[in-house]
Amino acid sequence: MRTINLMIVGVGGQGSLLASKLLGSLLVAEGYDVKVSEVHGMSQRGGSVVTYVRYGDKVYSPLVDLGEADYIISFEKLEAARYVDRLRPDGKIIANTQQIDPMPVITGAAEYPEDILDRYAEKGVQIDAIDALSLAEKAGSVKTVNIVLMGRLARYLDIPYEKWIAAIKQNVKERFVAMNQEAFALGYNS
Amino acid sequence: MKKLMLGNEAVARGFYEAGVTVVSSYPGTPSTEITEYSANYDEIYCEWAPNEKVACEVAFGASLRGARAACAMKHVGLNVAADPLFTLSYTGVNGGLVVCVADDPAMHSSQNEQDSRHYAIAAKIPMLEPANSAEARDFAKAAFTLSETYDTPVLLRMCTRIAHSQSIVTLEDRQARPLPDYHRAPAKYIMTPANAIQKHPLVEERTRKLTEYAETCPFNRVEMGGTKLGILCSGTCYQYIKEVFGDSVSVLKLGLVNPLPVQKIRDFAAQVDRLVVVEELDGIIEQHCASIGVAVEGKSLFSPIGEFSQATIRRAFGLEQPKEACAESLPIPVRPPVMCAGCPHRGLYYSLVKNKVTVLGDIGCYTLGAAAPLNALDSTLCMGASVSGLHGFNKASDGADAAKTVCVIGDSTFIHSGITGLVNIAYNNSHSTVIILDNSITGMTGHQQNPTTGYNIKGDPATKVSLEALCHAVGIHRVRVVDPYDLAACDTAIREELAADEPSVIISRRPCALLKYVRHPGPISIDADKCRGCRACMRIGCPAISVRNKKAVIDATLCVGCGVCSQLCAFDAIEKKEVKA
Fold this sequence. Notes:
A: alpha/beta; Pyruvate-ferredoxin Oxidoreductase, domain 3; globular; B: Rossmann fold; Rossmann fold; 16% strand
C-alpha cells in the first residue's frame, strides 16, 4: 500500500497530543510502519501547531509536504485553511468550526476571515465541517473535542470501529473511557 | 517488544540499555525529553543542572569515577558546554561519556541555526547522527562502546525532526555495569600544560584511528540503486531522499559524521556517474569531499538555510511536485505564539511599556513580550546576555540612560547565566535595574524544575535558592519583590528602582498560569452595557480578549481571571475577582 498522510492542526494548547497518541498506538497495533512528528517548544504557546502522522508498509520522511495530505484534521477553522496547500486533490479536510482569534486579529491588524472554509469549498476542496465543540460538550466535556474529531476521521479510514474503541481504552484513564467513547460515537455518527 | 518512541525517548532508552547511571542536563528544545525520559528509569541518577557547562562537567566527574554518563542539550547549549568539551577531548574518559546535542534547523524554537558538526571537528571528537528512533537508540548505545574503545567523549547529534518524531523501536535489555574501583591517573586527567602537551599528539592519533574506523563502521552504509546518481547524506536528509527516490538511486548513508571516511567515499564516488551531497545547514560533508579530491555537487543545489523536506529534494533534482487540491492560497492572518492568558509576565511588561523603558530581554517564554501589541523588548541574544548587556549599555552612556533602561530575565535563565552578570553589575557598579521574572518554573521548554523552584527532576523536594538572598550576597542592596498582577505596584517599583543611585533588582514573582497547582479565580466577563469599545484592555495582548461588534469580549474557555485587564478599564466594565497571592 502507499503511505497514508494525516495532519492534525490547531492552536497550541488545544490538546492535539492525545489525538496523535491515539492514532499512533492504533496504527502500530494494526501492523503498519508509523511515523508521528510534532513540534514542541515555542510554537506551543498559542501559536499554530501541526502534527504529522504517516503510515504504510514503510515510512521514510516524518513530514507531510505540499499536495501530500490525505486528511487534515483541524481543531480550528483558520488552521484548516492554513494548510490547504498540503492537501492532495482527492484529500479531505475534517474541520472543527470553532473560531479562535490569532493575535493580529485581536490587535486589529487583521480580520478573521469567517467564511474561509466556504470559499475553499467553492474552489472544490473537500471539507467536512463539524461543530466538535458542541458535540464534546454533549459528551460531557469540551476536552473531548479531540476524540470527537477522531470519531469523524474513523468514518473515512479503513480501520474497524472496535479497534478505535480499543485504542481509546488503552490511551485514556479508565474513569474517562465512557465519556470518550460517547464523544467518539458522536463524531462518527452525527 | 516494539514501541512507538519519540527520537528523544529512544536516546534515553539507549542510555538505559547501555547501563548509564548518571545523566545531567539543562533543558532546551528540541533536547529536553532525552533527560525527562531518562529520569523515568530508576536505575539512572538524573538531574537538571543550572546550565550545560555544569551538566557536562557532572558527566565528566561521573565518567572519571568509572560510570557511564551522559548529558543532553540544544545546539546553543553546546556553546555553554564547549569549555569542558574541548579539554575532555584531551583527558578522554574512564566510563563512557556521551554528549547529546540537538540542532534546530529552521529555528522552530531557537535564536540561531548553528550546525553542531563544527564542534565535533573543532574539538576532534567523534559524532554520530541517527536518522530515526531505532537508530537513536542504537547509536546512543553504541556511542558508549566507541567512547571507551577510543578513550574519547562522543557527540550524538539529533535534530528537531528526529528528536520530535516517533517511530518504531524494538526494545532490548539493559546491560548492567557494576561501578569499577577508582584508580588515580593524574597524567591523564590533570590538564596542566606539561600533561596536555603529551595529550595533544594522542588526540591526533585517535582521530587517525577513528578515520580508519569510519571506513568499516556499520553506521556508514552503502545502499546501491543504480549507477546514475549517488547521494551522500546523514540523519533526516536520508529519510527525504528515500521518500523521493526509494531504491532507485545509490546512497552512502553516514551515521558517523565525524571523522568522515576517505576511501569509502572515493569508492562510492567511483561507482556513480553523478555524486550529490544532501545536507542541512552547512556544507561539511561537501568540504570534506573537496579536501579528499572527490568531485561533488552540494550547496550549489541546496540552501544552507532552514530545514529540508521531500519537496526540497524534488525541487533540487528538477522533479515534479505532487498536485495540490487547491492551487490558489487565500490570504489569512498569521498565528504567532503568544503569552498565555493569565501569564504573569504580561502585567510587568505592560508597566514597562507604559513607562517607556528600554528593555534588554533574554531567553524564555517572556521573549514573547517582543511581539505586538506589547513590543516591549529591545534585544534578545543568548542566556544571561540581558544582565551583562544592560551593564554595558549603561556604561556606554556613562550612566545617562540607566534611569530608563532595565533588563528582564527568567528565574531559570538567571540561575543559568544571569548570576555572573549581576556580580559584574555590583562589582563594577552600574546603576542598573535588573528584573527577574520569577514564574517558579522553566516555562518555555515545558515546565522543568530548576534550583529556584524547591523541587528536583523527580518532583521531590530540593534545596531552594533564595533569589533575594543571592542578590544581596553578591552586593545588591536594593532588592524588592512585586506581584506582576498588581499593575500599580509594578509601576511604583519600576519608577523607584530606576531612580535609585545604585544597582537594584526587582523580582516579579507569580507562578506560571499553566502550573497545575495554581488555583485561578476562574473566567471573568465584560459588561457590554458599560464597555465603550475603547480597546484599552487590548493593549496587553491577552489571547482571551477580542472585540465583537465594537465591544470587548472575554473568551471564557481561555480566561483564568488574572484581572490585569480589569485594572485597565476606565469604565469599570470588566468584572473584578479576588486573586490569591
